[in-house]
Protein 1
Amino acid sequence: MRTPELPPVHEAWLPRDHPLHRPRHGRRQLVALICALAFFSAPLSSWLFGARPEQLENRPLAEFPSVTEGFGFFTGLNGWATDHLPFRKGAVQAVSGISRGVFGEPAPLAGGSHGSPVGAGQVDAKPPIDESVFPPVIEGRDGWLYLGHDVSYRCVPSRTMDEVIAGLRAWRKAVESSGRTFQLVIAPDKSTEYPEHLPEDYAGKDCSEAARAEFWRRVPEATGAIDLRGALRRAAERNGHPIYHDIDTHWTHEGGATMVYQLAERLSPGITGTWRMTPSRRYPHSADIPDLLGQDRTVDIQAYALAPDGGEDNAQFKPSDFHEPLHLRSTPKPGMITKPVRMVGDSFTQFASPYLAATYSDITITHPDNVATNPAATADLLAQGEVVTFELSERFVAGGRYPLLNPDVAAEVGQVLAAHPVR
C-alpha cells in the first residue's frame, strides 16, 4: 500500500477540517507562553514602577546573561529572573511562616543552586546540589543555624582531594618561583569549629564528617596551609564566648583578628608583641543564614581598635566584598608589615580587613572569583606584591568548588609573576 505524501505546507496552515491540521499554538501552549513572558518580564516591569530586587543570599544577584553565551543565554535567564523577582523576600517569608505555623516544620526553601552564599566563581561546571536531600540551612541545637553547603559541598565535591591539593600546590609553586612569599590560610567552617551544636542526625552527616576528617588530615600538611582551628579555639576561651556567630556562617571580628595575628607572626615572628587591641564600637549586622529561611535577623558585632605600635588606633573600616579590589594603605609605623602584600580573600576576610589595614602599610585584597574570571588582571595585581596571601573558605576548598583550583589558572598567573620576579 502506498504511503500518502505529507502536505507541502506546515500543518498549521492546512484547512481546519484536514486530518493532519494542527494549530501552531494550542490553548495550553498559549497559556504557557503567557506565563513565561510574565515571569521573565516581571523584573523589568516592576523596576519601571520603582520596585527593586533584594539580595537574600550572601552573594551578588545573578547578572543578566550575555547573548554571546550561546544557549547559555537561555539557561541563565532562570537564575536572573528568580533573583530579580519583585517581592521575592516577602514570598520566602510567607512560605516559611505557613510551613512553620501550619505544619510545624521548616519550609524546604532552595538556597539558590546557581550561586553560593560566600561566592565561588561560576567558571567551572559544578555538580548540582539536590536540595531535596541537602537543605540550604541546617537547624542545630540551642538556636544555632548552619549553612547547608558546609555539608553538601563535601558530599558532592567538584574535585577529588588529590586534585584540590594539586591546585593549591600549583599556586605555591607559581608564587614562590617568582621570589615572592606565599601564605595560604583556610577559614574553617562553623560546623568544623562548633560541631557540638549540630543536630544529632542530618542529611549528609556521615559523608561530610568523613570528608572533613580527610581534609584536615591531609591539606594543611600537603600544602603548607595555616591551620587556624587551634588558635580560634584559644581565642574563644580567652574571650569567654564563641568566635563564630550562632546564626551567621562567619566568624566574629575576633576570628578575623586571630587570622591577622597568625599571618603577621609567620611573616615576621614577634612583630605582634607591640600590638594593642581594644574594643571599639558595636553595631548590628544582618545575619546571612536566616535570609535563606525568609527571616530578617541581625547579630551584634563587636569591633576593635588596633594600634600596631601600642599607640593610636590604626584600623580602617571600609566595607567591601572585594569583587572590586580593595586597596588599603597607611603610613608605616613600628609593628607594621611594610612589604607590599596582595591578598585573595572572601567574605571571611571582610571581618579581618580593618585589622589588616591597621598592621600592613600596603595591602590590596581581591575576591577568589576574580582570579579565574580575569586571570590577567589578577596576575598584574599580584605582581605588585612581595607577599601573596590566600584566604580560602573550607567548604569551597573541601568541595573543590573554587575555579582557581584549576592548575592552568595558577600557571597562567605564574607566567606573569615569573616575568616580574622579586629579587
Note: The radius of gyration is 25 Å.
Protein 2
Amino acid sequence: MDLDLALVRAFVVTAEELHFGRAGERLGLSQQALSKRIQRLEELLDRPLFERSTRTSALTEAGRRFLGPARDLLAAGDAAVAAVHRPATPLRVDVLHDRLGPARLVAAVLAGNPRLRLEISARRGLSLALPALRRAEIDAVFGRVAGAAAATAVAHRLIRLEPLVAVVDAGHPLAGRSTVRPADLVDHGVWVPSPGSAVEWGTYLQLFADRFGIPLTFEQVDNVGADELLRRGRALGRVFLSAADVANPQADDLVTLPLVEPRPVYPWSLLWRRNDRRPVLHDFVDLLHDYGALEGWRAHDLADCWLPDEDREALAAGPPAGG
C-alpha cells in the first residue's frame, strides 16, 4: 500500500490537536478539506482513526497504534526532502598563496556570484598542491601548467595572463620612466623573495632572466613590506621584480613600472582531475574563463608577449582531451 504523505500529515496534526478546526488552521485547510483527507486515509487503512462527536474528537485504538509510525514516516519524508535540497559541498580550490593573483581573482568572482560556495586553501606551490589534487583533498588549483600537467590525470584551462612589473624607489634611475623593457634591467639586475615551494614561479623567473641576460637574485625574506622592499633593493642595487596582481607594498617613494617590448606574462591556469565530471566544477571553470574575458585577464596578444617556450607549447596544446 502506498501512503500519501499529505494524508498522513493531516492525520498527525489532527491527532495532536484533537480538534479539526485548529488542525485545519495549522495545515491551511478548511475543516471540510481536512475531513476529506482523514476519510480518504481511513478508507485506505480500512480502519476508523478518530471517534467523532459534535464537540470533541478522540483517537480510536487503530489511531493510537498508527500515530507513532506515522510520525516516523513524516520524519523520514522530511529528511529525504532535506537531503535533496541540502547545499552542495563547497568546491575546494587552492590559490597557492593569499597574496597572489589567483586569491584576488577568486575574490572578485565571489563578489559577483555570492551563491558560489568555495573552500579556499593556500599550499604555497604546485609541488604541494598537485599531490593534494591527485589525492582528492582539493578539487582544483591555480598554477603554471608547463611541466605540471604532463600527467594525463590532470586537465587545465588558461585563466589569466598576468604581466610582470618592476618596482623601484623614487630615486632609482628607472623611476622617471612610464615603462621599462627587459633589456633595461640588464645593467641593474632584479631580485625577488625566495620562491620556496613555489618552484614553478622560480623556474619561470629564472627562464626569463636567462633569456634576457638579467642578473637575478632570490632573497630569503619573511615579509616584503614597503620598508623592507626599499632596504633590500638599495642594499642589493637591484630592481624588485613582481607580478601585476600581487598585493605589492604601496608607498609614496615606490614606483611600479610595467614591463614591455616584449611584455612578460605569467600564465595562470586552473588545474583539476581529468576524471572529475561534476557540473559544479565545470561551471566554476566556465565562470572563471568567461569572467576573465570580461575583465581583460587574457587581453594581451601573445605575439607581443614573452612566455617560455615550454609554456607556449603547453598552452598551444590546450586542455587534454576530456578536460
Note: The chain has two domains: 5-85, 91-317.
